[in-house]
Design goal:
The chain is mostly beta strands and 155 residues long. The protein is 11% helix and 44% strand.
C-alpha cells in the first residue's frame, strides 16, 4: 500500500518451482531428476509434465535469490555462506566478489539449509538476523537436503 503500481511490480519475484522426482534406471538403481516450472505455466496450462506418472520427492519454491554463480536458490537448498569480516591475508579467505576491499572469512557455521518459515525464506539454525545479511555476493549453493543430506552433518 502506498507504493505506486510501477514500484510494486519491480519488487515482485518470479514464482518458480523445482520438482524433484525419482527416476528408475535400467540397472535397477534410482536417481533424482528435476523439473522446473512456474506459477504462470501451471495456471495457464503450459506445463505439460505428467506429475501423476512419477514419484515426487519434493516441491521446492524459488526464494527470489541467486547465488554467487547465478544459480537460483530454492527452499531446501544447502548453502555455504561467508561472513563479512575485515581480515588480512590468512589461508581460507576469499576476496569479496563485488570488488570491494573487504575479504570474507568462511565462518564456523557456514553451511545451512534454506527454509521457509514465518512468511519468509531463512537460514535454518542460524542467527535470525543472519538471513537479512545474505546476498548473492556471499552465498554458494552446494547441494540440497534431498540429494546431499550428508552436507549438513557435523564433523
Amino acid at each position: 500500500y502506498g507504493l505506486p503500481i510501477k514500484s510494486r511490480v519491480q519488487i515482485m519475484r518470479d514464482i518458480k518451482f523445482q520438482i524433484l522426482f525419482e527416476v528408475h534406471n535400467r540397472d535397477f538403481t534410482t536417481r533424482i531428476a528435476k523439473h522446473y516450472t512456474s506459477l504462470d505455466r501451471l495456471t495457464n496450462g503450459e506445463d505439460n509434465f505428467d506429475y501423476s506418472a512419477v514419484k515426487i520427492i519434493a516441491k521446492r519454491q524459488f526464494t527470489g535469490l541467486q547465488d554467487i554463480e547465478g544459480d537460483d536458490i530454492y527452499e531446501g537448498d544447502i548453502i555455504s555462506y561467508y561472513s563479512g569480516t575485515l581480515i588480512n591475508d590468512i589461508n581460507g579467505d576469499i576476496p569479496c566478489p563485488n570488488g570491494s576491499p573487504m575479504m570474507y572469512r568462511k565462518s564456523d557455521n557456514s553451511i545451512r539449509e534454506v527454509i521457509y518459515e514465518k512468511s519468509s525464506f531463512r537460514v535454518k539454525g542460524g542467527n535470525p538476523l543472519l538471513s537479512a545479511y545474505l546476498s548473492s555476493d556471499n552465498i554458494e549453493v552446494i547441494g540440497n537436503i534431498h540429494q546431499n543430506p550428508e552436507l549438513l552433518e557435523t564433523k
